[in-house]
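Researcher: Here's a chain I'd like modeled. Treat it as a single chain, no partners, no ligands.
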Amino acid sequence: MEKKQKLIGVVSLLIFALGITLALVIAVGIVWGDFEAALFDPGISADSTLRGFRCPVAITTHEVGKISATLKNSTDRDKSFYVRAHITEGYVLFKREINMQVPVAAGDKEQISWEIYPEDAVYHRLVLFRVYVNASYPDPSRGNLCGVLVVDFPGLTGGQLFILSVALSLAAVIGGRYFWRKSNPNINSKNAKSVSSAITGLAFMVYFTMLIGYLGLWIFGVLLVAITVLMIGVILGRFVFAI
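Model: Modeled as a single isolated chain. Structure tokens:
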């Protein structure tokens, strides 16, 4: 019975580790995309962030992606916004420029969008995008950016693959932790409690990093990725003694 429990404990930790690894890969991919986008075409700078900006985390190699933004006219007169977007075309130095003059009625809003293609990806893995909206009183100039991962996965869209990957990682993390606790006869021991707290904290950190990256806060995301990697290194030794 003790050997069986120990085997279940080892398998449970492996399942947990697979879930954490998958979640960390997703988080790193999101943060990496926006980090690269921040380095792309830095000559376009804005005074504030363009709100209502929507960018997919990933697209597949057979999919046409869509990036969108909403322009709002909060004044009592009609306005026209000048919008410039840059998209990579296979290389960091090659870009496609799209200029728009977008009229918006007083008190109204208008959604604009751009299509991106797998062929736009640099390193064959990442489409970089940056948009700039000219200042128009009382609004300052606004801008935003993102990096979209390109994944070779037939049968699913990038959005579906992202949701499925997050769901699988959550199932592995929650299931692995649950069965590890069930199989550990010394769960109330000091060392086991320490490991339990460590893996719970690690899971929280990984998914928090993913959330921060998804919100486009890539600077904090880079810091959180570094902290997460350090956490993994620190607690690996503790796992060995808790099995």
